[in-house]
Automatic annotation (TrEMBL):
Residue ranges of domain ABC transmembrane type-1 in the record: 176-376
Keywords tagged on the record: Membrane, Transmembrane, Transmembrane helix, Transport
SUPFAM superfamilies for the chain: MetI-like (SSF161098)
Pfam families: BPD_transp_1 (PF00528)
Transmembrane segments: 7-28, 48-67, 74-96, 108-126, 138-162, 182-202, 214-237, 257-278, 299-319, 325-345, 352-375
Protein name: ABC transporter permease
Gene3D superfamilies in the record: MetI-like
Membrane topology: Multi-pass membrane protein
Family per record: Belongs to the binding-protein-dependent transport system permease family.
Statement: the UniProt record of this protein carries the keyword Transmembrane helix: yes
Length: 388
C-alpha cells in the first residue's frame, strides 16, 4: 500500500516532533518568580502515563503526515489535545514535592508547540469536512464546555496559572467583564456612528475621500500614543463640563480607552459599508426603483441586506481587533485582562502574564468563529436574494 504525504501534515508533523523531542514539556520552579528546571515529557510524567502519551502523540503525528480521511484526522487531533491537557494536569501533581506550597509547575515551550500543532490539525480537519455554520458554532460550544469541565474537575489546580487564578478569582471575573464591555461597547458605538456615516459617504461621493482619509490617519496613530493624546482633552471635559465626571468621563481609566477603541473601529465599518453598498448590482437597484420603491425603502430592503455580509466582515475585524487592543487599556487604568499581563511583566511572573493573555486569545478566537459563521449564513441569504 502506497502512502501519500499531506503538505500541511508535514508542517504539523515537524512542529509536533520538535515539541515532543526537542523542547521541554513542563518547568518545575522553586516559586512563582524564579527560573525553574525544564522537564521532558518522560521526566514530567509517571513512566506509564509518559509512555502512553508519547505513543498516542506519535500515532497522531503519523495520521497528520499521511492523507488520511478528514474524520480520522479530526479524531486524532482531538484525542491528542485531550491527552496533552490531561497529561499537563498530571505533571503538576507528579513534579510538585509533597508538602511544598511554594513550588510551581508550568507548561513549557514543548507543551505549547504541541498544543498549537494539534490545534492546527483540528482546524484543518474541520475545514476539510466543511461543516455548516451552525455546526461550527456547536463545535465551539462543545470545546467551551470541555474546557469548563476541565476547570471544574480540578485536574489543573496544581498548575501555576491556576494558582495565580485562585488568588485573584473575583478580580479576574471583574476584569473579564471590563474587557468585554470595552471591546463590545466600543464596537456598538462605532456601528451606530459608522454605518450611517458609511451610507452618507456612499451617497455623497465628494465626502467619501475626506472621511476615509481622516479615519486612515487615525489608524496610523499607535494605540499607546492615542491613549495618551486623549488624556488631556478628557480630563478637561471632566473638570469643566457639568455632569461629565459623574458620567465616568476622566483623563485616565475606561473613558480614554473606550474613545480610542471607538476611533480605531470606525475605518473598517465605514469603508466596508461603502464597499458593500457599491457592490450592489445596478440592475437590482433599477428593478427596485421600477416597482416604486423610495430611496429609503431601497436602502433598508435591498441595499443593506445585500451588503450585510461585507459589513459583518468589518464587524468581525473590529471585534477581534478590539479584544486584543483592550489589553493595552490597563496601562491607563482601563482594566481588562491587560491588568494581569502588565502585573505579570512587572513581577516577572510569566504565569500571571498567561492568566491575562490566554483568555484574551480564546475570546478573540471564539468571536472570530461565531462571526465567521454569521457572515457565511448571511452570504448564502444574500446570494439567494440575488438569484431571486
Amino acid at each position: 500500500m502506497r502512502f501519500r504525504f499531506d503538505k500541511l501534515g508535514i508542517v504539523i508533523a515537524v512542529l509536533a516532533i520538535y515539541g515532543l523531542l526537542a523542547s521541554p514539556f513542563a518547568v518545575l520552579k522553586p516559586n512563582r518568580i524564579l527560573q525553574g528546571q525544564a522537564k521532558t515529557v518522560l521526566e514530567a510524567l509517571p513512566p506509564l502515563a509518559g509512555g502512553v502519551l508519547v505513543a498516542g502523540l506519535a500515532l497522531a503525528i503519523v495520521i497528520a503526515l499521511v492523507r488520511a480521511p478528514a474524520t480520522l484526522r479530526l479524531i486524532a487531533a482531538v484525542s491528542a489535545l485531550t491527552g496533552l491537557v490531561l497529561a499537563m494536569g498530571q505533571a503538576a501533581g507528579f513534579l510538585t514535592p509533597d508538602g511544598n506550597t511554594y513550588a510551581r509547575v508550568s507548561p513549557a515551550s514543548g507543551f505549547w508547540i504541541l498544543l498549537f500543532a494539534f490545534a492546527l490539525l483540528t482546524a484543518d480537519a474541520i475545514t476539510r469536512l466543511q461543516p455548516p455554520p451552525w455546526l461550527r458554532v456547536l463545535l465551539l460550544g462543545a470545546a467551551a464546555v470541555a474546557i469548563g469541565l476541565l476547570f471544574v474537575s480540578g485536574s489543573w489546580n496544581g498548575l501555576s496559572i491556576m494558582k495565580e487564578y485562585a488568588g485573584r478569582a473575583d478580580v479576574f471575573w471583574s476584569e473579564a467583564g471590563n474587557h468585554v464591555k470595552l471591546a463590545l461597547g466600543s464596537l456598538v458605538a462605532a456601528s451606530i456612528v459608522g454605518l450611517p456615516l458609511g451610507v452618507l459617504c456612499h451617497r455623497v461621493r465628494w465626502l467619501r475621500a475626506s472621511v476615509l482619509n481622516l479615519l486612515n490617519l487615525i489608524q496610523t496613530i499607535p494605540s499607546i500614543a492615542l491613549f495618551g493624546i486623549l488624556i488631556a482633552p478628557l480630563a478637561w471635559i471632566a473638570a469643566n463640563v457639568p455632569g461629565a465626571s459623574e458620567a465616568g468621563i476622566r483623563g485616565i481609566g475606561t473613558a480614554p480607552a473606550f474613545v480610542a477603541l471607538f476611533l480605531y473601529s470606525l475605518l473598517p465599518i465605514v469603508a466596508n459599508t461603502v464597499v458593500g453598498l457599491s457592490g450592489v448590482p445596478r440592475e437590482t437597484n433599477e428593478a427596485a426603483r421600477g416597482i416604486g420603491m423610495t430611496n429609503r425603502q431601497r436602502l433598508f430592503q435591498v441595499e443593506i441586506p445585500l451588503a450585510l455580509p461585507v459589513i459583518l466582515t468589518a464587524i468581525r475585524i473590529v471585534l477581534v481587533q478590539n479584544i486584543g487592543m483592550a489589553t493595552i487599556a490597563a496601562l491607563i487604568g482601563g482594566g481588562g485582562f491587560g491588568v494581569f499581563v502588565f502585573q505579570g511583566i512587572g513581577q516577572t511572573a510569566m504565569d500571571l502574564v498567561l492568566l491575562g493573555a490566554v483568555p484574551t486569545v480564546a475570546l478573540a478566537f471564539a468571536a472570530a468563529v461565531v462571526l465567521d459563521a454569521l457572515i457565511e449564513m448571511n452570504s448564502r441569504v444574500a446570494k439567494g436574494g440575488r438569484a431571486a
